[in-house]
Amino acid sequence: MRFVFAILAFVLAALMIAFGIAQRTVFLEPASTSLSTTVEDGSAFAVIDSTALAAFSGSQTLTVSGSDSVFVAYGRTDDVKAWIGAEDYADVGFDSDANALTVSTATGTATGTVTEPADEAAEVTPLPTNPAGSDLWLEEFSAPESLTTTINVPAGISVLIASDGTAPAPTEISVAWPTDNSTPWAGPLIVGGALMALIGFVIYLLGLLHLRRSRRPRRNVSRGPRMPRLPRVPRPKTIKASEITGPRRSIGKSMIAVPLVLVSGLVLSGCSPEFWPSAAPEATGTATATASPTAEGTEEPVADEAPEPAVTVPQLERIVGGIVNLTAEADANLDAAAIATRFTGPALEQRLANYKIRTADASFAPTTALPDAPLTLTLPQQTDTWPRVVTTVLQSADEASVPTMALILKQESPRENYLVEYAIQLEASAKVPGVAPATIGAVAIAPDNKFMSMAPEAVGPAYADILLNGEASASYPLFEAEGDTARTQLGVEAKQAQKDKLEDTATMEFTNAVGSGDVVALATNDSGSIVAVSVNEITTVTAVNGKATIEPTSGPSRALSGIDKTSKGIQSTYSEQLLFHVPAAGSTDKIVLLGFSQGLISSVELP
């Protein structure tokens, strides 16, 4: 009977092991689900919609081919369609009933504000048609002929596919998602089968042992008739153990070693996680707000969601990193064309003038460099239209030698990149007020907003009046004087020192004018705002009675004006970039200067 049980155990073990191995071989499901489609309308762009990317759970592996060059980028769906604008594109969607990708030709809708040039005859730079390098993309890829990449994007993200923006987009598109092909019972079956084989072998050994014992002579056996005594056989010679040449072998141990090797091999083969059952993952995610009933039994309306921030932190880090590298090269090579691709307004004015001065006088100090440092503050505007603005602060760990810089970047339209409109060195004692997280962003404050202690558009002229008149200015009590180094360097005393250096043959006058930069104001957590403005300070040196000869005393003025002496006079314009924290209306706090940057941008002979 023991042998029967042993045979049954061996058969059951073989079936369990065979079925466990079959789950990982014959019956194994594919490791991914793939859908493919072909674009045949000849459009320059194709867009894989967010719904198609989310057809199945997990990361998305894109394979694109069918053109000489392949470009793939992903970004927010609204941003992707805004970049395409009014052009036709192939819209790749998902049909859940047919479980297949669909392709249809769609016509885009122009998004954003188009700024017409003030002079109709002015030359307008054409917008780029190649999507490569756009600041709107969260990430981009390119390759010749064929490209395969894996991304993991949430809902609300779409993929843009193109060749070079003018040639037809790649025609072959495939999207694959990983599938769960784990076999949680393969491991238990293999290991269980191995254990069953071991049990069967033990039963078999017990059966053999019982059989051997049953064949031994039994005691108390009845004696038969007495047989005659046989002759005595000679006793064989005793062999000593030392005379045995071969080692003793235990048949039992050898037989045990075989199943042990088998069991260990089978156990090790089932150690992978996909061979074993796993606990169900805990529920994760963010709770979704639902409407709550009111006292009358009706539901309260759910407030409209605020627009998303203009950029994400990784997106801005990539943008600013490229700007920092380009600025360093342009500053070193005095490359005006290169710097104009990433700067605008007063930030560009100061650098272009600095390049011109340094071309004439190599010893002149360059404009303050942008530090290659982490972004310690990111405040994007909440908006789904254009233009868009973003405020960020670059702060190095070595603040003693590397100044902290605040950048105000503006994107005029979807196909234009972010340009630095303000590059302002922060005061050493500046404390940036609390702002919303970068994932939420801040609301843009209108320049004429009346809910601030001072309208943003009035802050620049009011502060310039303080620099010009000091305590005599009507705006003096509204601004914090402590920690304001601009008053020391550019205020009344500094201006009087310049006048004192003039001879009696000339006079000097100071006036102010509005700068070239737009007023940028973003809301802070205290209902105030961070305001960036630009002011031009104009210094006019005039000869007395028109008889004296005036010579530019500084190299920068001589370099920009191109004159060595004049009897008419010289007018020099200094651009001042200013950053303030303006409290809310009714607050007892004063307006605080957070930082400033000044530079000579023009010097001309008076007419």
Automatic annotation (TrEMBL):
<feature type="transmembrane region" description="Helical">
    <location>
        <begin position="185"/>
        <end position="209"/>
    </location>
</feature>
<feature type="compositionally biased region" description="Low complexity">
    <location>
        <begin position="279"/>
        <end position="296"/>
    </location>
</feature>
<feature type="compositionally biased region" description="Acidic residues">
    <location>
        <begin position="297"/>
        <end position="307"/>
    </location>
</feature>
<keyword id="KW-0472">Membrane</keyword>
<feature type="region of interest" description="Disordered">
    <location>
        <begin position="279"/>
        <end position="309"/>
    </location>
</feature>
<feature type="domain" description="DUF8094">
    <location>
        <begin position="308"/>
        <end position="600"/>
    </location>
</feature>
<keyword id="KW-1133">Transmembrane helix</keyword>
<protein>
    <recommendedName>
        <fullName>DUF8094 domain-containing protein</fullName>
    </recommendedName>
</protein>
<feature type="region of interest" description="Disordered">
    <location>
        <begin position="216"/>
        <end position="244"/>
    </location>
</feature>
<dbReference type="Pfam" id="PF26366">
    <property type="entry name" value="DUF8094"/>
</dbReference>
<keyword id="KW-0812">Transmembrane</keyword>
<feature type="transmembrane region" description="Helical">
    <location>
        <begin position="256"/>
        <end position="276"/>
    </location>
</feature>
<dbReference type="InterPro" id="IPR058407">
    <property type="entry name" value="DUF8094"/>
</dbReference>
